[in-house]
Amino acid sequence: MSDASNSKGDQGFTVTIRTISAQDFELERQFIASLSPTTGYRRLFSPRKPSDDEIRRFTSIDPSKEFALIATTGDGDHQRMIGVGRWVKPSAEANVAEFALVVADDWQGKGLGTRILKGLLSEAKRRGLEQVRGETLSENEPMLELCRKLGFSFAKVPGFAAVTQLRVELKSWPPERGSGIL
User: Fold this and answer.
1) How many domains does the chain divide into?
2) For 127, which DSSP code?
């Protein structure tokens, strides 16, 4: 999935979802800086902000074991990142990946996270992965609802109820439309 997909958002903005590139460093840095403390904490499980080296790592991915999509509005000098999702395999040969997703505060609840996560899962399945998993804070109801809708299963982290493990088996994804999940 390297082609960009465009659609009109709720407020008439064109939203582009495309693969991330090393040239997106400044967009990613501005995006992270724009997140509210709550959204940043939900993504990193910490109030810290990623360093420039970490942001460079987020945008310079290894395509043999990583895939990342960004959502943007605007163009040229007026482009703004409004969401990012990624999955990472522990090695190029692995058939399981860990995912992460974050959407700008003013774009949450508008279907953007669903579009990004569906794109991530579709690409993972296309590449032959068997499972995608991740973790979220157990209080992060929007993420839990999104994952529930997309057919993920949940488990509490033993001894740490504040974190919920999320997992989807890709051989049975996407769920059938009649299942009430999609």
Assistant:
1) 1
2) T
